[in-house]
Specification:
Layout (H helix, E strand, L loop, with lengths): L5 E9 L6 H4 L19 H4 L22 E4 L11 H8 L4 E4 L4 H9 L3 E4 L2 H8 L5 E5 L4 E3 L5 E3 L4 H9 L3 H7 L1 H24 L1
Parallel strand pairs: 1-2, 2-3, 3-4
Antiparallel strand pairs: 1-5, 5-6, 6-7
Length: 204
């Protein structure tokens, strides 16, 4: 995972509501445990026509959206079954943040563990973003804010631990491994206390 301090990008828009994880990455592509390469299968059944050719109308196939790192989607994004392949596919596609008025809890948890920032904003702001695809937004992870082209800054919720992991570019295990020295000091102090307690009991 790479640290995410800010994301400055044009938006790509999917107005549909209730986009589930099977639409994000169809189940037939879940046979791999590798994250790399899943991006080409993201939204596969929407991106391709029946003959297998790219659907020119699908937003991620349009030239103006190449390189966009922020997805704005309809309500209840990421619903359905839990699968880490969904955020893997989106990050491999190049996305770093998803904005919606509602994001499914399990998808949100999986996204934060895999370097994808799920942002929930009020309906009015999201409706505005859905109506204006391609605008540039600035997301400040430390400030927990999204800055719109007109200069307005909108706050979004993000718990402190998830924020720390995103800024440090680590998942939960990576965060714990970075605390190795502190854990060693704690264990040494605990061992010493236990030894002193045993000595006291023997003396009494």
């Amino acid at each position: 995972m790479h640290p995410i301090t800010e994301v400055v990008s044009r938006t790509v828009v999917l107005r549909e509501r209730n986009i589930d994880t099977d639409q994000i990455i169809p189940a037939r592509f879940l046979t791999t445990t590798q994250r790399e390469g899943l991006g080409k299968h993201a939204f596969n059944d929407w991106r391709t026509l029946e003959d297998g050719s790219p659907n020119p109308q699908f937003p991620f196939n349009r030239a103006e959206n190449v390189g966009a790192r922020i997805l704005v989607a309809g309500r209840n994004f990421g619903c359905g079954s839990s699968r880490e392949h969904a955020p893997w596919a989106l990050t491999d596609l190049g996305l770093r943040a998803v904005i919606s008025a509602q994001i499914a809890d399990i998808f949100r948890s999986n996204a934060l563990k895999n370097g994808l920032l799920p942002i929930v904003l009020e309906d009015g702001i999201v409706d505005e973003l859905l109506d204006r695809p391609g605008i540039e937004l600035r997301i400040d992870v430390a400030g927990r804010s999204v800055t719109l082209p007109d200069g307005r800054s909108v706050q979004f919720p993000l718990d402190a631990f998830a924020q720390t992991c995103l800024l440090g570019g680590v998942d939960q295990l990576g965060y714990l491994l970075k605390q190795d020295a502190a854990i060693a000091r704690f264990e040494a102090a605990r061992s010493e206390q236990q030894g002193q307690s045993q000595e006291f009991r023997h003396a009494s």
